[in-house]
Give the backbone structure.
Amino acid sequence: MALLPHDTTPLSGRSVLVLSATCGFAVATLYYSQPLLPMMAASFGASASAQGSIAMLTQLGYAAGLLLFGPLGDRLERRGLITLLLLANISGLALCATANSLDWLLAASTLVGLTAVSAQIIIPAVSGLADPARRGQTVGRLMSGLFAGTLMARTISGFVGAHAGWRAMFLLAALLDMALIALVNYHLPKTPPDSELPYAKLLASLWQLPAQQPLLREACLVGFLLFAAFNVLWGSLAMMLARPPYGYGSEVAGLFGLIGIAGMCASPTIGRLVDRWGGRRIVALAAGLVMIAFALIAAASWNLGMLIAGVVVLDLGSRANLVANQTRLYALLTQARGRLNTLFMASYFLGGAVGSALGGAAASQYGWPGVAAAGVLLAAGAFGTVVLCRTAGRVADPVG
């Protein structure tokens, strides 16, 4: 693989901060729909299962976008690639806002997810421009912006949906994307591609890595299962809160996103625990936390406090899963970090898509007990995977 020279001038702190916020708003387009799902389905007289389909197709599109466009970050000039992705995302958001049928909305939601991968191009680009002595700190700031985007998206969309309707939220998101294009072009310098490898060969290398790296296979499977569990709740929460005994609208459903602040604040501590205890132990702990979370959520039909506690614990477990798995993968094969990230995140969001569909189906048929049972089973599968890999001793963990 031929490597081309880079401009190694470090970015200013202000530019890193702006690009961190850009990552947050870019990933937020995946989550704007979640508090609005009952309103969106009701607009077309659709059943409750349609709510899970909207969330599922958005995240399924994101997983496909990571696989299709993630490798292009090594092959094309990144600033131009990010601009094109944001323009395509604006088109998807506009199509959502103007959808006149459920099928149209489902197709538009898929396009939104497919093109919402800008943050996964920005992070490697900024990492390559960072001062080597402060690269970890820089990436940490970018990830904080990414986490903040997942939190604020649900709260903002819940508020806008309650006061202006769900279509207004997608129009607002399209306007925000236009602002992101300006920010990226001002704060992210042009850099030559890392590789001259043809696109087909870049894609082919994605299938070779899992065959060569057992730890990658383990991380992808565990990430799939635990993010599926996370989305079992978030793909059904707005629907369940709208039912008795709560009867809450999108604004209250969106406020539940603020509970995730606990997980965001805990991320640095989780990272230090990974360094001290090892990645696999923290992933096992994450699976245990997710099981505990859904045990609490099982009581949500009669106790709002148990639901809130479950959401807090679920977010901590999901955050620990992401931080621990990414840390050990980045230490695995330094020359292929971008592709390792592409494969892991694609598996992660594919799990999210499956979880969203499963959550909608479980909630519509069995209510809170069904949601809890689905989440526990997925987390138990993740825990069992970690135990089997550790017991077999064939999958070495570079951080323990």
Remarks:
- The chain has two domains: 11-188, 205-400.
- The longest helix spans residues 337-392.
